[in-house]
Amino acid sequence: MENKLQELKTRLLEYSDLSFVGAVLGWDQSTYMPPAGAEARARQSSLVGKLAFERLVDPAVGHLLDDLRPYEESLPYDHDDAALIRNARRSYERYVKVPVNLVGELLEHTALTYSKWAEARPANDWARMEPLLEKTLDLSRRYAECFPGYDHIADPLIDMADYGMKAQDVRRVFAELREGLVPLVKAITSQAPTDDSFIYSQYPQAAQLAFGEKIIKQYGYDFQRGRQDLTHHPFMTKFAWGDVRITTRVREDDVRDALFSTLHEAGHALYEMGINPAYEGTSLDGGTSAGVHESQSRLWENIVGRSREFWDHYYPDLQAAFPDQLRGVTVDQFHRAINKVTPSLIRVDADEVTYNLHVMIRFDIELALLEGSLAIKDLPEMWNSRYASDLGVTAPDHRDGVLQDVHWYGGLIGGAFQGYTLGNLLSAQFYSKALEAHPQIPSEIGQGKFDTLHAWLKANIYQHGSKFTAPELVQRVTGGSLQVQPLLNYLRTKYGALYTL
Amino acid sequence: MENKLQELKTRLLEYSDLSFVGAVLGWDQSTYMPPAGAEARARQSSLVGKLAFERLVDPAVGHLLDDLRPYEESLPYDHDDAALIRNARRSYERYVKVPVNLVGELLEHTALTYSKWAEARPANDWARMEPLLEKTLDLSRRYAECFPGYDHIADPLIDMADYGMKAQDVRRVFAELREGLVPLVKAITSQAPTDDSFIYSQYPQAAQLAFGEKIIKQYGYDFQRGRQDLTHHPFMTKFAWGDVRITTRVREDDVRDALFSTLHEAGHALYEMGINPAYEGTSLDGGTSAGVHESQSRLWENIVGRSREFWDHYYPDLQAAFPDQLRGVTVDQFHRAINKVTPSLIRVDADEVTYNLHVMIRFDIELALLEGSLAIKDLPEMWNSRYASDLGVTAPDHRDGVLQDVHWYGGLIGGAFQGYTLGNLLSAQFYSKALEAHPQIPSEIGQGKFDTLHAWLKANIYQHGSKFTAPELVQRVTGGSLQVQPLLNYLRTKYGALYTL
After folding, report:
1. What is the largest CA-CA distance in chain A?
2. Mutation to test the A interface, candidates B12, B39, B41, most A Cβ within 10 Å
3. Which pLDDT tens digit goes with each residue over A78-95?
4. Strands of B243-248's sheet, edge to edge?
5. Residue B362: phi, psi to the nearest 5?
6. What would you report as the CA-atom Rg of chain A, rounded to the nearest whole angstrom?
7. Distance CA B226, CA A379 (A)
8. In B, which residues are within 8 Å of A47 by CB distance?
């Protein structure tokens, strides 16, 4: 049995290593690759992805999993080996249903689409992306249809990212959240607007990057095991336990953009860096779901990084780094500015209160596209009409409208967005549990100390990797299931004070 | 037959793409990878290398080559398809003799050794490298022994880099060259030393990089198809026809280091960028031998980049970039300084006259190690004694002694060095042919114009990729074989004038 388990691990490691190699190709494509490298890179990424996939669904893996069932059943549910075999089986049984040629086609198509999007977005060129997106939708449908028996065609795609969730679960959660958010947005936006003009001075790139990197080092991001580079659409990526990288982008006319993206991606990275190193290359490696992953990026970006305690400590440093730009601006004014609530066009720039409304628009659109009730050609119109009705704003162009998010242009349509809002919900749930255990956390944040919080998250969430499913993990950590109220409570308390509601 | 050829091309493309993927991993490892990423990267590089190798020696390739023989024989020797099949056969017949496990072991070992070397060299830590190098030597011998029937055990390794050459051919050529070099070095070093103190002022990194990149753009290096990054030991690498990158390193206390490394690697890159794009991913892709490749790096670095005409044009720009550092220094003084001949410790910093003596030391040592007449433990002593006898200098430490060159620490021992001197010889042969065709080239260089030279090299050398073997190419271009005299003539003329011999 020991030999069988070792053979399974060897096979999983080869799958994992090829996936990591694909991640290196993707990282380079998004950071440094010269424009003319795109065509061959798409072909190479697709090849590596196919080789990885072939290893995932090798019939020999199926046989090993059969042979290992008695061993698995002899172990406690929480035993690492049991979880490893269980996860490997879930993944095998899922992906063995997908033809390898479809995977190859999808990989090649999305790599190419990404590189076209990187040019088309700045050029505001929707027409160029439309036919590519038609094909993405077709491929996404074909992918979902590999899993017959779904309630909604999006279910298999949602389940891949957020195991255990279906479209109807997400809809129910989103409806409850919307009910709490809409009156909060209305109450806030009826007040006089916050002055945040100083946010838009000139902030030189190098000083912005240095400031963010200093903070994430204090968060616990280990630069011996990672680095930060520039890209179009920031992301975290992992090539090994010892190599977990983040990317950011800088707008010199907006001091928030690079900083909060760095804090956000560092949150994802802390999760991956905190996984038990013994899990490397196994089915326990990696964060357990899109939602739980996002809970960590949002926790470090928002709950910590936009808190008053945080800025009581760091604002003097920021002011010292940008003395001309922030002359005469108090910490109170700065803290209000970075928490200004205003319905806007760009999801990743949205404040915490309106952010989830952006996600809901995308989620509804994904479902409509997959169902066939919305055609790609009508997507920009639907996008604009939903922004008008839900947020009261209209994009002047496609660049800041339907072309803004990379997801549909670098992957599947379906399953890409719900995790953002699930993550926000979970960030508030997890943080309130951390506070119950360690009420001193906010005052430590006020001293630039993050050890207690980081250690609690590592012990309760990070170290486990994918050992527990998201619902299992939420149960273990919070004693219950996914809840909407903790986020609403957090938002009402924080913004109630900021806006004196 | 069309189908068979297409199938061969498909298989070669997959091999080529996996090799390019391995090159991406290597580039990242040498440029940006955080230290803790090394262990997994070694494993991943080895895996990709093995997958590539398996495709190279797949028995199906052997069958296709058999099937394609009648077609090949029906074509003129110079036909692209004939050359493609011929090269694929040569490569198949060579590598099918090497067990895939040996390849995997070698790849993993050399990737790890490279990362240890990157730490051990600055730490002057020979002891750490000694056991790794023992294993490298063992693997190199085992590799060579896959090709029984050699005259010298180094022959198979030399042949892989410089097809058609054996140890005894290299020795003969090197002996003839040494006979010409030694009196030249003696004549020069008996003169009063050149003042080059201004070379060692402080030259800020960004301005150094910008200056070098401006020049290589004028050489014809296409930044849409490439980029330059920083590394320890500069190299050129290729991921596709559209992605040919170079790396450099900067010493702020030596204005030569980054500049001439940039010109050197750009020379390699111009060769790869100039290959017929129809050859991408076939057995015609890539420069034809180490020696011919090096002829291009040395041509653009030295024959062009250290010429008086070149600096008559560019020195005012350099002086404008570094006005304080070069105040009062004339173009004549600068040109003499960058061509100062002085026996020294570091190969890559050596002047054109003494450079080949460094190569000869390494070549002789490689042969002795492979033969078994020199043990790894005695390597530092042998290194130092050869430097004392051949160049009259002694390294104060291993860092600038036996640890200086990456080659043995990132690949095989054997076949790694002769190409450098073969390249110097060929650079002079090729350049004299270009001058015969276009005598105006030096005066164009004096105007910062390189089109005529670049176009001649592209037409005569670059476009062909590996279509012709090095001996065939030399025959086509020069009408004869590899010669020592053109380099000696070039050196005697240039340094005769500089030192008034």
Report:
1. 70
2. B41
3. 999 999 999 999 999 999
4. B228-230, B243-248, B236-240
5. -65, -40
6. 22
7. 36
8. 14, 17-18, 21
For B226, the closest chain A residue by CA position comes to A34
Q: Hunting for tokens 């198509």 — which residue is that?
A: A109
Residues 6+ apart with CB under 8 A from A447: A313
DSSP state of A345: S
Q: Are B17 and B281 in contact (CB under 8 A)?
A: yes
Catalytic residue among B265, B272, B280, B294: B265
**CA pair distance A197, A240, nearest whole angstrom:** 42
Contacts of B47 in chain A (CB under 8 A): 14, 17-18, 21
Helix (H, G, I), strand (E, B) or coil at A468: coil
Q: What pLDDT is stored for residue B2 in this prediction? A: 85
Q: Is the pLDDT of residue B1 over 90?
A: no
Query: Which phi and psi (to 5°) does residue B73 adopt?
Result: -70, -20
CA–CA distance, A397 with A384 (Å, rounded to integer): 10
pLDDT tens digits for range A396-438: 999 999 999 999 998 999 999 999 999 999 999 999 999 999 9
DSSP output for B279-299: GTTSTT-S-S-HHHHHHHHHI
Question: Token pair for residue A447?
Answer: 């001293």
Strand partners, A243: A240
Residue with tokens 């006319």: A253
Q: Between chains, do A239 and B34 touch, taking CB under 8 Å as contact?
A: no
The per-residue pLDDT for A115 is 86
Token code pair at residue A240: 């090994």
pTM of the model: 0.96
Tokens of B426: 């060929």
Q: How do beta strands B243-248 and B228-230 pair? A: parallel
Instruction: Please tell me if residue B18 touches chain A, with a CB cutoff of 8 Å.
Output: yes
Residue reference for tokens 């002593």: B381
Q: Which residue of A has its CA nearest to B14?
A: A47
Q: Which DSSP helix (H) or strand (E) runs through B247?
A: strand B243-248
From the list B368, B362, B335, the residue with the least C-alpha distance to B346 is: B362
Q: What's the token pair of residue A285?
A: 């490696």
For the segment A113-139, the average pLDDT, to the nearest whole number, is: 95
Q: Convert the pLDDT of each residue in A100-117 to its tens digit.
A: 999 989 998 998 898 899
Phi, psi of B214 (to 5 degrees): -65, -40
Other Cβ atoms within 10 Å of B95 Cβ, number: 16
Q: A430: closest CA among A467, A483, A466?
A: A483
Nearest CA in chain B to A40: B240
Cβ of A36 under 8 Å from any chain B Cβ?
yes
Probe site for chain A from B21, B30, B216, B217 (most A CB atoms < 10 A): B21
Backbone φ and ψ for B275, nearest 5 degrees, come out as -70, 140
Please give the backbone phi and psi of residue A246, each rounded to the nearest 5 degrees, phi first. -125, 160
Q: Which of A46, A23, A76, A202 is nearest to A139 (CA)?
A: A46
CA distance A103 to B74: 40
Closest to B414 (Cα-Cα) out of B199, B183, B175, B110: B110
**Rg of the Cα atoms in chain B:** 22
Q: How far apart are CA A273 and CA A220, in angstroms?
A: 9
C-alpha closest to that of A258 among A319, A205, A200: A205
Buried b (16+ CB within 10 A) or exposed e, B473-490: bbeebbeeebbbebbbeb
Size of interface A-B (CB pairs under 8 A): 112
**A454-496 pLDDT, tens digit each:** 999 999 999 999 999 999 999 999 999 999 999 999 999 999 9
Which single residue is written with the structure tokens 């802390």? A270
SS3 B141: helix
Are the CB atoms for A285 and A235 separated by under 8 Å? no
| Eight-state DSSP code of residue B193 | P
